[in-house]
Design a protein that fits this description.
Radius of gyration: 21 Å
Number of strands: 0
Order of helices and strands: HHH
Helix content: over 70%
Structural class: mainly alpha
Largest sheet: none
Number of helices: 3
Strand content: under 5%
Amino acid sequence: MVLLFVLVDKMYMVEATETEMIGVELSSNFIEQTYDFQKLVTVTLILIWCSIISIKFSYLFLFKKLINRIRSMIIY
């Protein structure tokens, strides 16, 4: 939710300029805001990926005794 509140203004500004909406006034540092938005999106995606992978590994370690006898799962 914090990232959403940080990103929402920049997100709407970038979307409005990409779709060429009428009445959108660009600020003087629009390019800088766009780069900041892209950085925050990248950081958000990395955090989401890390959380999903950590959950997958936690399930893997939780059920380790179940897959002890399956060789392909041990290699995976």
